[in-house]
Amino acid sequence: MIRAVFFRRYTAATVGKPFRNVAEVKQYLAKQTWSIDEILHGEDTGKAAKQGVPTEEEVRKLLALCAFPVEDADLQNSKRILVKQLSFINKLHETSVDDQDKNLDENYARLLPRQNKALTYDDLLKKIDGIKQDEATGEPTGSWDSTGLAKMRKDNYFIVRQGLLKNRK
């Protein structure tokens, strides 16, 4: 005889360690934090406004660089938004996180390391030399040599005069 077994599976996702009692919840909520609204509307906005209000020409250039329409743009609103963004970025740069790193539990922190070693030119060349073509992505080894057909080389420039269309019909 075949019996069907039914069961329920409950799943949950956690962000951090669970609270054990109400006191821990109150302690967590009582921690001093700063909000984005305080930063954007605080005294630093006035400093940023005095230090670096972009001119209309700069706003037009930024809009053009971002491929936004320049003719129909509300330049005053764009200026105000830029000042807010700059003050927020300045506040983030001024905030020290060194004191917080000592008590930081890395299980609940970033996925990337906080202290990165600077990449030098020699390290970059070593990484490039160590790259192997991946056949899983359709790059069979030795399939194409970008400078193999070059007849002339001068100052790290290669001149290819023939051979690119050799096998085409």
From TrEMBL:
<dbReference type="Pfam" id="PF20977">
    <property type="entry name" value="GatF"/>
</dbReference>
<dbReference type="GO" id="GO:0070681">
    <property type="term" value="P:glutaminyl-tRNAGln biosynthesis via transamidation"/>
</dbReference>
<keyword id="KW-0999">Mitochondrion inner membrane</keyword>
<dbReference type="InterPro" id="IPR027499">
    <property type="entry name" value="GatF"/>
</dbReference>
<protein>
    <recommendedName>
        <fullName>Glutamyl-tRNA(Gln) amidotransferase subunit F, mitochondrial</fullName>
        <ecNumber>6.3.5.-</ecNumber>
    </recommendedName>
</protein>
<comment type="function">
    <text>Allows the formation of correctly charged Gln-tRNA(Gln) through the transamidation of misacylated Glu-tRNA(Gln) in the mitochondria. The reaction takes place in the presence of glutamine and ATP through an activated gamma-phospho-Glu-tRNA(Gln). Required for proper protein synthesis within the mitochondrion.</text>
</comment>
<dbReference type="GO" id="GO:0005524">
    <property type="term" value="F:ATP binding"/>
</dbReference>
<keyword id="KW-0436">Ligase</keyword>
<keyword id="KW-0472">Membrane</keyword>
<dbReference type="GO" id="GO:0016740">
    <property type="term" value="F:transferase activity"/>
</dbReference>
<keyword id="KW-0496">Mitochondrion</keyword>
<keyword id="KW-0648">Protein biosynthesis</keyword>
<keyword id="KW-0067">ATP-binding</keyword>
<keyword id="KW-0808">Transferase</keyword>
<dbReference type="GO" id="GO:0032543">
    <property type="term" value="P:mitochondrial translation"/>
</dbReference>
<keyword id="KW-0547">Nucleotide-binding</keyword>
<dbReference type="GO" id="GO:0005743">
    <property type="term" value="C:mitochondrial inner membrane"/>
</dbReference>
<dbReference type="GO" id="GO:0050567">
    <property type="term" value="F:glutaminyl-tRNA synthase (glutamine-hydrolyzing) activity"/>
</dbReference>
<comment type="similarity">
    <text>Belongs to the GatF family.</text>
</comment>
<dbReference type="GO" id="GO:0030956">
    <property type="term" value="C:glutamyl-tRNA(Gln) amidotransferase complex"/>
</dbReference>
<comment type="subunit">
    <text>Subunit of the heterotrimeric GatFAB amidotransferase (AdT) complex, composed of A, B and F subunits.</text>
</comment>
